[in-house]
Amino acid sequence: AVGYPSLGDQRAIFPLARLLGAERIGIRLTENGAMYPQASVCGVYIASRCAKYF
Q1: Domains of the chain by residue range
Q2: Which are the contacts of 13, defined by CB distance < 8 A and separation ≥ 6?
Q3: DSSP code of 1?
Q4: Over 80: is that where the pLDDT of 53 sits?
């Protein structure tokens, strides 16, 4: 998830939200990258046999 060690730069949420069309489903970002409504979640999921959870 954006902001966690694997994707630590919180600014990554801005292009990700544009790419996914977050506003179409009612998700807005504050100037700091916080999502509203507050129950919103965002992450990047990559499937690979070599991937490991850390």
Answers
A1: 1-54
A2: 2, 3, 29, 33, 35, 42
A3: -
A4: no
SS (H, E, C) 15-53: HHHHHHCHHHHCCEECCCCCEECCCCCCCCCCCCCCCCC
User: pTM for the full model?
Assistant: 0.73
* Amino acid at the residue 7: L
Cα dihedral 21/27/28/33 (nearest 10): -90
**Cα–Cα distance, 7 to 15 (Å, whole number):** 13
Q: What is the pLDDT of residues 6-42, one digit of tens each?
A: 888 989 999 999 999 999 999 999 999 999 999 998 8
